[in-house]
Amino acid sequence: MIDDAALLSAEELEARLRQVGAERYHNLHRFHRRLHSGGCSYEEVQAWALNRYYYQSMIPIKDATVLTRLTDPEDRRQWRKRIEDHDGLREGDGGIERWLKLTDSLGFSRGYVISTEGILPGTSFAVDAYVEFCRTRSVTEAVASSLTELFSPDIIGERVAGMLAHYDFVSKDTLAYFSQRPPQAKRDADFALSYAISHAKTRAEQDLVVKAFEFKCAVLWAQLDALWSAYVDRAVPPGVWAPGTVAGARGEAA
C-alpha cells in the first residue's frame, strides 16, 4: 500500500487528472470525430441525439444523490446549481428542455424520447452505472467523476462549429443546449476540482479520485462504442430505434 509519504501535491494531482482527460476523454472517440467532421448520416445524428437524451435526463438525478451527501451548506448551494441548469427553474427552461428541442428538430416525438424505449442497451447500462457509482461510492469520488467538465467547453466548441458547417438539418437554435453549457461547465469543473483535491487527504484517496475520473471517461466512451456498433456498423440490437422506422417519428405513436 502507498503511504502518506507519497502524497501528491495539489498541482501534481491536478496534472494527473488533466493527463487522464487528455488521454481518455471522448473527444478522441471515432464517433465524435465522425460527427464533428460531417461524416455522420442524418440517421446517425438522430441516434446520437436520442441516446444522449438518456444521459442528459439522468444527470440531475445523479446530482441529486450527491447533493444529499454534501454536509456543508455552501457546497450544497454550489452543487444545487447543476440540478437547476438541467431541470430549469420553471417549466420550459433548462438543459433537458433544450435537448428535447434538438430531438424535436430531428423528427422524434417527445413522448418517445422521454420514454427512452428506443435507446441502446449500452447507453442504459453505462448511464445507470454512472448514477449507481455516484450513489454508492464516497462523495469525493462522486464529485471527482464529474471532472470530464474540465474538457467539455473545448468539445462543445468543436461540436457546434462542425455540425453547423456540415449539416443543413441543424441550426444555432436547435443546438441551443450547447450555447449554455461552456460557462456552466467551467463553473462546475472549478468547484469539483477544488473539492476533489482538498478532500483527498491521503495518497489512497487521491488514487481513488483519479480512478473515479477514469471511470467517468469510460462511461462516456462506452456510450459512443454502442452508437458506433449499432448505427455505423449497423448491428442494431433488437427492441431499439432503427433508422427508417416510423417508431418515434413526430406525430406517430411511439
Key structural traits:
single chain; Heme Oxygenase, Chain A; 11 helices; 67% helix
In words, what does this structure look like?
- Helix 5 (95-105) packs antiparallel against helix 10 (176-199) and helix 7 runs antiparallel to helix 11 (203-232).
- The model is unreliable at 250-254 (pLDDT under 50).
- The chain is 67% helix and 0% strand.
- It is an all-alpha fold and 254 residues long.
- The N and C termini lie far apart (54 Å).
- The protein has a single domain (8-232), classed as Heme oxygenase-like (Heme Oxygenase, Chain A, Up-down Bundle).
- It contains eleven helices and no strands.
- The protein is globular.
User: Average pLDDT value?
Assistant: 93
The figure for the number of domains is 1
- What share of residues are in beta strands? under 5%
Number of helices: 11
What's the helical proportion of residues? Answer: 55-70%
> Radius of gyration from the CA trace?
19 Å
Q: How is the biggest beta sheet arranged? A: none
Number of strands: 0
Terminal residue distance: 54 Å
CATH fold-level label: Heme Oxygenase, Chain A
Element order, helices and strands? Answer: HHHHHHHHHHH
Specify the oligomeric state: single chain
Structural class label: mainly alpha
Overall geometric form: globular
